[in-house]
User: Fold this.
Amino acid sequence: MNSKLSSEQVDKKKLRKVIAASSVGTLIEWYDFYIFGSLSVVIATKFFPSDNPTAAFLSTLATFAAGFVVRPFGALFFGRLGDLIGRKYTFMVTLLIMGFSTFAIGLIPGYETIGFLAPLLVLILRLLQGLALGGEYGGAATYVAEHSEPGKRGYRTAWIQTTASLGLFISLLVILATKKSMSAEAFANFGWRIPFLISIVMVGISYFIRKNMDESPMFEKAKEEGKIVANPLKESFGKKLNFKFVLLALFGATMGQGVVWYTGQFYALSFLQKVANIEFEQSNYIIAASLAGGTGFFIFFGWLSDKIGRKSVMLTGMLLAICTYRPIYQAMYEAADVSLKTEVAGSKVINTDYAMIPNSVDLKKTVKTELSYTDGSKLTLEQSSLTTMFPGRNPKKPEIKRIVHVGSSSFWFLILLVFIQVLYVTMVYGPIAAFLVEMFPTAIRYTSMSLPYHIGNGIFGGLLPAVATYLAAKASTANEVAVAAGQAIPYDKPYLEGLWYPIIIGGVCFVIGLLYVNGKDKEIND
Amino acid sequence: MMNALRQIFGIVWILLGLAAGYFLVFEQSLKLFEKGGMDNIVPAIIYTFILAPLLTGGMCVFGVYALQNEYKSID
Assistant:
């Protein structure tokens, strides 16, 4: 009995090591992947022609999307490799590719130095990041699941699920710490490169931890028994028996999970910054605090899915999300809307500044108006206009920048609202690794689970910020056209229009999940 | 009963896939391509070459499988 107990303890110790090694590596990959997105505004000014900021920003979004669109190809390439040569070696290769790409982005000279080569190199490295991420997640999830005992697979793999949020959390912390440690000018000049460059140290450490790990026992067993298939891609997607489950995993789980995840973690940040106009640092603190509070729930819902089933936990999260997104975002908008707050009498401060534009004959005039409100909120309006010294040349249209610093009560209320969304994320995302792993046999597991995961998250989820921003912008334009024509505005709340994308996609996924997903199956299907 | 419902919904998924493809390509992308400009062409490319094939192709095959009662055994 004693020897049995001791062997169980050894196994648990080994299991903890497996989870730690897999999770740390995956966390670093997510960190690498997110710093690009978090710094997209700075990257736009450095690597894309700066004369049109909107075009530069869209170019970055396109690059961002390229990083997501390419993920399913990484899933296919590395998934196949993982099913042929093993999980361990494959996810070590993905880790190295990701580390190299991130580090290299931090070294590329800007557009002003090397011209179009700069955005081209950034695009190539971003594509490599996407490929690596496409291979990493499936490998780590499969590796942990294949080491786990039945009945605890949801709980064990939930640790892998925390890494995506923790990766984002750490990326925000590193960016905020770097910004705090230097002036805004220094950060814009070289400081933004630091989060990219330090990635190489983290990747090095993770590589050496993973190097000493053993191959997955289930894969070893399948290999010994000669059950490894020669063509995992053909087996996964060429045979109806397996392909029907790939489609079910995509349309009945990962598609909805992807949009809930990206709404809660990315669209929320974009909404705070671009729609609610909350200042960069404060909006990042709101997201970071919500993630810090919510991350433990990945483990809880992973554990709960072992007890009551993956399907019920995931579908409840999806249903709550699609029913409450609009009221939550309306409340977020109102929390930052200064027109609903009371202005402090006599608080208006106006400063005017003039500066010559280097290497030109243009003069830049900046009028800064600051207003304070009784709840501690502050509004800063920056109106910049260029005056040309050449007679007859038309001056450029003035740009107005609106920055809101919310007071303490609104700040905590916004944290609560984003936290609720993170909670939905943990419900749909916590059990998903175990759910996907249990759908497919060992011989094709890495390939079969990676593709629906990365299409659901990378494409349906990853494109959410671009599609939602577009829908909201389209509604605003329609309103402006109607006002100009003297007609009634077609959209009462144009800033909420972007939410139709996650609501519709999530709704379809919920119905498919409810009808077709088996709520009882919690065993690995071999 | 549940299996019959799953089969009937197969038609819904096929129609939904076709409708999504039509809406994305003809109602959205073509108009955006006509307008031109980077901020219109980027979403148009995404709709036409990524979302539309995935939704139409995937949902139609899924619908056909559902109609063929391929998902009955998982009950």
